[in-house]
Every structure is written in structure tokens, then in C-alpha cells.
Specification:
Ribosomal Protein S5, domain 2, binds alpha-D-galactopyranose, about 45% helix, 2 domains, Alpha-Beta Plaits, globular, six-stranded mixed β-sheet, alpha+beta
């Protein structure tokens, strides 16, 4: 990546006050559980966004997105959602932090857009972290994660959970993070994959319904909780619900629409699965962990219905391959990547086979990313 500070200088003709890097994320297990107050297990990756920032003396924000070759200028007063999405990820956090002094900002990145690696959260985290430093705002990383989430709700229109921004900000090298989305407490686990690598297969597809279906899933889960609450008032979210309660209140013998039952069964079983997967990690039982990834995919595809033919194809393509310990779709769904745990010695053969069959099936080129786990948002020299 070329130097973001140099870009800033070229663009604004002075040296920036600071530059910040914020990574994309993977999620090992725990999908669509964050907004249900469950557990997730993300990690920050070696693909990131960089921003350089400098103060202005007036009340305007001058923005330059180097990769898109686009610029925007806005007054810092009365910020409202903008027609250009990348602008929203900047002004959304400016609004959250109630910044009143203008600034110049320039950004670039190498996180593939629309691949489900949270490039948008990385932009917002980089900007807020930079503003936090620039104006000595003293927000903690968790406070910033919550502000970025709120900015995404208000400015980008996606009712996302906390996982993406949390992971981008809190990542640590070679560690996955178990986040409890109910209490916001978290724990780092060293990831010892020894003979295995984490590999993403990017469908290079992003179906248009992704964000509207995402918001619908959230509502369906809330509807399920409302029904369960009639019998079990103590249940505040699907995190509190048991499979028995789901069966009793939402199951086939009830008047609840089958879709609500399917959505909630998936979420409750996934929350349990993450807790069991932690034990697999602790005991180094990677094969057991991998089996759970396949089970997650099955649930996301058949019960939660957020997969798509391309993602299912990629998981099916490796399911019987003994060199692939686990695979599943990752992130919100309807396109993006599958995450795979693949034996290092078989990496070249497996990726070649999968790419060839994917091309034959879809006429699309498969993008392959071998991932390393890196540090979260930080200032760069
Ligand atoms: C998207 C959202 C996250 C999370 C995942 C699904 O990435 O931004 O909050 O809900 O989907 O696990």
C-alpha cells in the first residue's frame, strides 16, 4: 500500500497530524448472534483501511477516497445521511462524536468491498480513532465501537450488531476474541492452527437484498422473543432462551409462523455452538471446531436462509475433502466469502480445485485470501 501521508500531502498540500490503520475482520463462529445478545468469535485481519487526518480552521470536512478517486466537501453542521455511502461512514462517526471543528481526511484501503470483511466498519473505526487522537476525546475502544455501530444504524441504514467494529478496534495479533454481546465483556484466545491455515473463498457476489434481508432477520428474531416472553417474561433476547422454550412457544404445534421458529432455532443453537467451540479451541480440538463450522453453515443456509447458491456451492465443494477441516459462509450472507480451515500442505491443490469448479459452475473468478490475524486499529508512523 502506498503511503497515506503522501496522498494526504498531495491532496491538501500540508503534512497530516496523524495516520491510522484499521483492519477488516473474519469471524470464526457465531453468525447473526451479535444482535441477539449472543457470542461471536471474530479476529482482525491483514487487510485494512488507512486514513490520514489534519485540522482545519473552518467548519468544513474535506474528504478524499483515494481508491475511488472521489472527493467530497461538507459543512460539519447539521450532518445528515448522504447519497454516497463512503461519505456516510465518515460523517456518521463525526456526528456521533459531536465534532464541531472541520478537518481534512484522506483514505485508502485493501479490504475487498462487499466481500463481507467489514470494510465499512474499518473505515468508520479508522476515522473515529483518528478523531479521538486528533482532539484528545478520550473515548475507550468499546465506547468507539458502540458509536460506530450507532453511526451505521443512523447513517448507513443497516441495523448491524457490534461484532465488526468491535473486532476492528480490539484485534490482537494471532488471537481470536470471544465477545459476549450481552455484557460487552471479551476474552482473547491464541489461535494455534499449527498445520492449518484460514482461507477465504470470495464468491465475488453481493446480492442486492443483503441489507434489507439483514434488517428483516433482526425483526424476525425480535418477533420470536415477543412470543416467548408471553410465557417466559424473563427472556429479554434469544440469548436468554433455551431450545425447549423455542420448541414450546414457537414450534410446529404452535400458531407461530414457521419462519420465526426456524430463525430462532438457528440463533439459539448457534449461541450454544460458540460456547462449545471455545472448549474445542482451548483443548486444541480443531477437527471438532471444524465440524461446528459446517453445522453453522447448514443452519445459516436452511434455517436462517441468508446463504445463496454460490456460497452453498463453495461449502459443498470442500465438505468431503479430508484436507478441509471446516467451512461455512461468513458474515451477513447473500454473497461475500466462505471461511475455510485448510491443511497447509494441501492449500495449493484445494484452492486450484475449488477455483476451477467455481469457474465452471458460475463463470466467475474465485478470489482466494490466505488470512493472517493482526492487530486492531492503531496509529501508524
Ligand atoms: C454483519 C453485521 C454483523 C453481524 C454479521 C452476522 O457483518 O454487520 O453485526 O450481525 O453480519 O453475524
Amino acid at each position: 500500500m502506498s503511503d497515506i501521508r503522501t496522498h494526504f500531502f498531495t491532496q491538501f498540500n500540508y503534512t497530516p497530524s496523524l495516520a491510522v490503520q484499521s483492519p477488516g475482520r473474519i469471524n470464526l463462529i457465531g453468525e447473526h448472534t451479535d444482535y441477539n445478545q449472543g457470542f461471536v468469535m471474530p479476529a482482525a485481519i491483514d487487510k485494512s483501511v488507512q486514513v490520514a487526518i489534519g485540522k482545519r480552521t473552518d467548519g468544513t470536512i474535506h474528504m478524499a477516497a483515494m481508491d475511488l478517486n472521489e472527493t467530497a466537501v461538507l459543512s460539519i453542521e447539521n450532518l445528515k445521511p448522504h447519497a454516497t455511502q463512503w461519505v456516510n461512514y465518515i460523517i456518521g462517526v463525526v456526528h456521533q462524536a459531536s465534532i464541531t471543528q472541520g478537518f481534512d481526511i484522506c483514505l485508502q484501503g485493501n479490504i475487498p468491498i462487499g466481500a463481507g470483511l467489514s470494510s465499512s466498519a474499518a473505515v468508520a473505526c479508522a476515522v473515529l480513532f483518528a478523531l479521538n487522537e486528533l482532539y484528545a476525546l478520550q473515548y475507550t475502544k468499546m465506547e468507539m465501537a458502540l458509536m460506530v455501530q450507532k453511526a451505521e444504524h443512523d447513517f448507513a441504514g443497516v441495523q448491524c450488531g457490534l461484532m465488526d467494529m468491535f473486532a476492528s478496534l480490539h484485534g490482537q495479533k494471532n488471537k481470536v476474541i470471544l465477545l459476549d454481546c450481552a455484557t460487552h465483556t471479551y476474552q482473547y484466545y491464541p489461535l494455534h492452527l499449527t498445520d492449518y491455515s484460514i482461507v477465504l473463498f470470495d464468491t465475488q457476489i453481493k446480492h442486492a437484498l443483503a441489507s434489507s434481508e439483514y434488517n428483516t432477520r433482526r425483526l424476525e428474531c425480535e418477533q420470536g422473543v415477543q412470543v416467548i416472553q408471553k410465557m417466559y417474561p424473563q427472556v429479554q433476547s434469544l440469548r436468554d432462551a433455551t431450545m425447549e422454550q423455542v420448541e414450546t412457544c414457537l414450534g410446529p404445534s404452535t400458531a407461530t409462523p414457521p419462519k420465526i421458529y426456524q430463525r430462532c432455532s438457528y440463533v439459539v443453537s448457534e449461541i450454544l455452538r460458540v460456547q462449545e467451540a471455545v472448549i474445542d479451541l482451548e483443548t486444541g480440538n480443531i477437527p471438532a471446531f471444524g465440524k461446528k463450522m459446517y453445522a453453522t453453515h447448514e443452519g445459516l443456509s436452511t434455517q436462517y436462509e441468508v446463504s445463496c447458491p454460490e456460497l452453498d456451492f463453495l461449502v459443498d465443494a470442500v465438505r468431503l475433502n479430508e484436507n478441509v477441516i471446516g467451512a461455512r459462509m461468513m458474515g451477513g450472507g447473500f454473497g461475500g466469502c466462505t471461511i475455510n480451515i485448510i491443511k497447509k500442505s494441501a492449500l495449493a491443490t484445494v484452492t486450484k480445485q475449488v477455483a476451477a469448479s467455481y469457474a465452471q459452475q458460475t463463470n466467475k473468478v474465485l478470489a482466494v485470501y490466505i488470512i493472517s490475524i493482526e492487530a486492531g486499529t492503531h496509529v501508524i508512523k
